[in-house]
Design brief:
It catalyses: L-glutamyl-tRNA(Gln) + L-glutamine + ATP + H2O = L-glutaminyl-tRNA(Gln) + L-glutamate + ADP + phosphate + H(+). Heterotrimer of A, B and C subunits. Belongs to the amidase family. GatA subfamily. There is one protein chain. By secondary structure, this protein is an alpha/beta fold. It has a domain at about 1-225: Amidase signature (AS) domain (Amidase signature (AS) enzymes, Alpha-Beta Complex). The chain has 15 helices and eleven strands. The chain has helices at about 1-10, 20-35, 80-85, 130-135, 155-160, 195-205, 235-240, 245-260, 275-295, 310-325, 325-340, 345-370, 390-395, 400-405, 435-445; strands at about 15-20, 50, 90-95, 140-145, 160-165, 185-190, 230-235, 265-270, 370-375, 410-420, 425-430. Strands 1-3-2-4-6-5-10-11-9-7-8 form an eleven-stranded mixed sheet, with helices on both faces. It binds glutamine. The site of glutamine has 14 residues, from loops.
Length: about 450
C-alpha cells in the first residue's frame, strides 16, 4: 500500500485518481497482515485495487466524472467490489473516467483529462482511462473499469495492459451507475493474465440484486490457464482490410495469426459483411438506453441541484443543463430522438433487429471457431484534441470493440507490441458466451 501511495503521489499529474483512500487502505493493510499471520486471509489478501468512478462504494462519493453527481455519496457497495473486499482486497481509490462512461479518450471528464504514461501528449483511451493508467503506471495492482462498447479493451490497448470484458450478465451490475443497461459490464485491468482471471472469478456469479446476472457456474479461471489444445481461430476480412487500420497494427495482427498457423492451429479468414452496421446499431441503442437511464438525474434525488432555479420546471432544466457535459447531452438528445414516437420504428426497432442479426452471426462463427482475433483498435493512442471536436471520428474509434458488446460475448485485449512511435498495440480475442476460462487460457498462451 505504501509503495502504491508513493507512486500515486509522484505520478499525480497523470490524473488517474480522483480520490485516494489513503487512511482506510493503510488500516485495511494492517488488518490483513494480522489475518495472514493467523492464516485466515482471503484469496486476494493484500491485492491493491482501484475502482472506476462509476462503481458505488458505500460511504464514498461516486460522481461518474460528472458535475451532476458532485457531492453524491453512495449508500451501497457494488456487488463486484464487495466480493473483492470480502476476499481481503484493498480498495485504494476512485479512478477518473469519461462522464457516465461516454467517450473513447477520457477527455469528457469533469475531473480533467488523464495522461497516457507512455506519452503524456496522448490520450489513455476511454472511458476507463484512469483505470488503465493506474495499472500502466503502477498505481495499483489491478483496477476495475466498465465496458459498454470497449471502455476496458480500448484503454487497455492504448496503455499496453490487459483488459477483459466478461460475457454480459457474468458479473452483477448492482452498484454500477448505468449507461446502457443491456450492454454494461464490469471489467478488469491488470498486467498479468493470472491476476485478471483471479479477480474475475471472484466477481463473477449470480447476485440476487441483479436479476439479469447469470446463474451459470463460475470456474476457477486462474487455475485453468494451461492451454494445450489446437485452437480454431477466425479473423474477419473486413477488420484486417479496414482502410482505417494503422499499417503497423495490421502487420502485428497478421504476424500473430501467422505464428498461430505455424504452431498447428487452424487459422481461417472469414467474412463479416455486417461490420459496417455494428457502430450505428451500437450508438442508436446505447443512446436510447442512456436517455432513459439518465432521466433519474433531476436535481431532486442525487448530487447537484442548480442554485439558479425559481420553480420546479426550471430546477429540472437548469440542473440538467448545468450538470451534464456536452457529450452526455448529445447522447441524451440522440437517444430521445430515436425513441420518439415518429422515429421509434425507423431507428430503435430496426437497430434491435440488426443487433439480433449481428449477435446470431457472431455466435454462429463462435460455434464454428473457438476464437475470433482482430485488432482492439484501428489506431494506437492519438493526441489530445485530435478527435475531440468531431464526435463521429471519436465514435469510429470503437469500430472493433462494439461487436462483442452488441453480441454480449466476452472479449479481451492483450498487448501486441508497439508502433514506431513507441505506442502500445492491442490484440483482441473474442470467444463465445461464458467461455471466460478458455479466453484466459488462450490469452495466457499468447502472452
Ligand atoms: N466509447 C464507447 C462509448 O462512448 C464505449 C463506452 C463504454 O464502453 N463505456 O460509448
Amino acid at each position: 500500500v505504501t509503495y502504491y501511495l508513493q507512486n500515486i503521489t509522484t505520478k499525480a499529474h497523470l490524473n488517474a485518481f480522483v480520490e485516494v483512500y489513503t487512511q482506510s487502505a493503510l488500516d485495511q493493510a494492517d488488518l490483513i497482515d494480522e489475518k495472514i499471520v493467523k492464516g485466515k486471509a482471503g484469496k486476494l489478501a493484500g491485492m491493491v485495487i482501484g475502482i472506476k468512478d462509476l462503481l458505488c462504494y458505500a460511504g464514498h462519493e461516486a460522481n461518474a466524472s460528472s458535475h451532476i453527481l458532485k457531492g453524491f455519496e453512495s449508500q451501497i457497495t457494488t456487488t463486484a467490489v464487495q466480493r473483492l473486499i470480502d476476499e481481503d482486497a484493498i480498495i485504494i481509490g476512485r479512478l477518473n473516467c469519461d462522464e457516465f462512461g461516454m467517450g473513447s479518450s477520457n477527455e469528457n471528464s469533469t475531473n480533467g483529462k488523464v495522461l497516457n504514461a507512455a506519452d503524456e501528449s496522448r490520450v489513455p483511451g476511454g472511458s476507463s482511462g484512469g483505470s488503465a493508467v493506474a495499472v500502466q503506471a503502477n498505481l495499483c495492482t489491478v483496477s476495475l473499469g466498465t465496458d459498454t462498447g470497449g471502455s476496458v479493451r480500448q484503454p487497455a490497448a492504448f496503455t499496453g495492459v490487459i483488459g477483459m470484458k466478461p460475457t454480459y450478465s457474468r458479473v452483477s451490475r448492482w452498484g454500477l451507475i448505468a449507461y446502457a443497461s443491456s450492454f454494461d459490464t464490469i471489467g478488469v485491468f491488470s498486467k498479468t493474465i493470472k491476476d485478471n482471471a483471479l479477480v474475475m472469478e471472484i466477481m463473477a456469479g449470480h447476485d440476487d440484486f441483479d436479476s439479469t446476472s447469470s446463474r451459470k457456474p463460475v470456474f476457477h479461471y486462474s487455475e485453468l490457464l494451461h492451454f494445450e489444445k489446437k485452437a480454431r481461430v477466425a479473423f474477419l476480412k473486413e477488420t484486417i482490410e479496414s482502410p482505417a487500420l494503422q499499417p503497423e497494427i495490421k502487420e502485428r495482427t497478421l504476424s500473430i495469426l501467422k505464428k498461430l498457423a505455424s504452431e498447428g492451429h487452424e487459422v481461417e479468414e472469414v467474412e463479416f459483411p455486417l461490420l459496417k452496421y455494428v457502430l450505428p446499431t451500437y450508438y442508436i441503442l446505447t443512446t436510447a438506453e442512456a436517455s432513459s437511464n439518465l432521466s433519474r438525474f433531476d436535481g431532486v434525488r442525487y448530487g447537484y441541484r442548480s442554485p439558479n432555479a425559481h420553480n420546479l420546471e426550471s430546477m429540472y432544466k437548469l440542473t440538467r443543463s448545468e450538470g451534464f457535459g456536452e457529450e452526455v447531452k448529445r447522447r441524451i438528445m440522440l437517444g430521445t430522438f430515436v425513441l420518439s414516437a415518429s422515429y421509434y420504428d425507423a431507428y430503435f426497432t430496426k437497430a434491435q433487429k440488426v443487433r439480433r442479426m449481428i449477435k446470431d452471426y457472431t455466435e454462429d462463427l463462435l460455434n464454428e471457431f473457438d476464437y475470433i482475433i482482430m485488432p482492439t483498435t484501428p489506431s494506437t493512442a492519438f493526441k489530445f484534441g485530435e478527435h475531440s471536436g468531431d464526435p463521429v471520428a471519436m465514435y469510429l474509434e470503437d469500430l472493433f470493440t462494439v461487436q462483442a458488446s452488441v453480441s454480449g460475448v466476452p472479449a479481451i485485449s492483450i498487448p501486441n507490441g508497439k508502433d514506431k512511435s513507441g505506442m502500445p498495440i492491442g490484440l483482441q480475442i473474442i470467444s463465445n458466451s461464458f467461455k471466460e476460462a478458455e479466453l484466459y487460457a488462450f490469452s495466457n498462451y499468447l502472452t
